[in-house]
From TrEMBL:
Lineage: Bacteria, Pseudomonadati, Thermodesulfobacteriota, Desulfuromonadia, Geobacterales
Superkingdom classification of source: Bacteria
Organism encoding this protein: Citrifermentans bemidjiense (strain ATCC BAA-1014 / DSM 16622 / JCM 12645 / Bem)
Location of the region described as Disordered in the Swiss-Prot/TrEMBL record: 22-45
Biased composition (Basic and acidic residues): 22-31
Designated name of the protein: LITAF domain-containing protein
């Protein structure tokens, strides 16, 4: 009986060593295969030019003025909020879009 327990303990120790080696190999492989950064420049969805610029709209003074006129101080604050939107503009064709905005094939080739 004690011989079979000793054999079982040896087998368990051997399995632990094997699993540690497999885990170490997997860690080495995963660290070696880190994803490459995307080197493709951002392009205009209409003309495919890489000459683009991005602007962030700050606080909208016109909306704040209208909100202040209609609803007082609270309207001024809420009218001026929401102006922190990014708009990307192509310098070649003038197309404007929001970051991450997906386009259909129709929009890509037939939009103005």
């Amino acid at each position: 009986m004690s011989k079979s327990l000793d054999d079982l303990r040896k087998w368990i120790e051997e399995e632990k060593k094997q699993s540690e080696l497999r885990l170490q190999e997997l860690r080495e492989r995963s660290s070696a295969t880190e994803p490459e950064p995307d080197d493709e420049p951002i392009r205009c969805p209409k003309c495919r030019s890489s000459q683009i610029t991005a602007q962030r709209d700050g606080v909208s003074l016109s909306r704040a003025a209208v909100g202040g006129f209609l609803f007082g101080g609270a309207g001024m604050v809420t009218g001026g909020l929401g102006g922190n939107k990014i708009l990307i503009t192509c310098l070649k064709c003038g197309k404007q879009w929001k970051p991450g905005q997906e386009q259909t094939i129709f929009e890509r080739y037939f939009s103005d």
